[in-house]
Amino acid sequence: MRRVLAITYRETQANFVSPIAYVIALVFVSLTGYFFVDAMSASAFPEATVEPYVGRATFILALLGPLLTMRLLAEERKLGTLELLMTSPVRDWEVVIGKFAGAFVVVISAIALTSVYVGLLFLYGNPDPGPIFTAYIGLALFAGAALAVGLFTSSLTSNQIIAAVLSYGILALLSVIHLAADHVGGAPATLLRELSMVVHFEDFLRGVLDLRHVAYYISVVVVLLYFTTRTLELGRWR
């Protein structure tokens, strides 16, 4: 566990020393802020809810996540530092979890900055805290799944652009796959809906904390981090 924490600290520090963490936080807060203001000014009696910006924040995370993760393994492989890391007394899964956790800290920090909008809702309105709580839990879980996808694609290539494009493709597929359920029926339709990252997020916005949805996002993270670890292990023996 010490090695995981050390890698997490190293990755977090590298992200905050470089402009990447601040750019991602600025873009995320700016876009969610625009959605928040737009929703509040669209009606004379706006509803005190985080749904207008949290609901769209998943789209923003799907765009920003690959930008943060595309370099994590691809760049190290290109520079040759990944081989040095693999030959050090650290296990592959420790590298994967440490890098994932470092990226997750950056995204959670950006999400935490939007709490100012929650404060404004409570200052000028009377929002239901339940849906706010579940919406942010869902947002954190969605972010973790998006980062896991990005880290996995970063382990497949030494080209950051290719890693980002692959990540965008997978996230886009997982975001729209439920639409295909309208054209099929029975078990295939159910499967397509269960695979969708968007479908599993909807209940969080409604204030429903369903463990089935939590398990889905955690499963996506665990499975993709496992595949990432296996990719590194295969690369070790090439």
Q: Report how far apart the termini are.
A: 28 Å
Taken together, the total number of domains comes to 1
Q: Structural class per helix/strand content?
A: mainly alpha
Q: What general outline do the C-alpha atoms trace?
A: globular
H/I helix tally = 12
Indicate the mean pLDDT: 84
Stretches with pLDDT under 50, minimum 5 residues: none
How are helices and strands ordered from N to C? HHHHHHHHHHHH
| Beta-strand segment tally | 0
Characterize the largest beta sheet: strand count, sense, and whether it forms a barrel.
Answer: none
Strand content: under 5%
Characterize the structure shown.
The chain has 238 residues and is mainly α. It has one domain (2-237). Helices cover 80% and strands 0% of the residues. The chain has helices at 2-17, 20-41, 51-69, 74-79, 81-87, 92-113, 115-124, 129-154, 160-176, 186-195, 197-205, 211-236. Helix 2 runs parallel beside helix 6 and helix 3 runs antiparallel to helix 9 (160-176). The longest helix has 26 residues, at 129-154. It is globular. The relative contact order is 0.15.
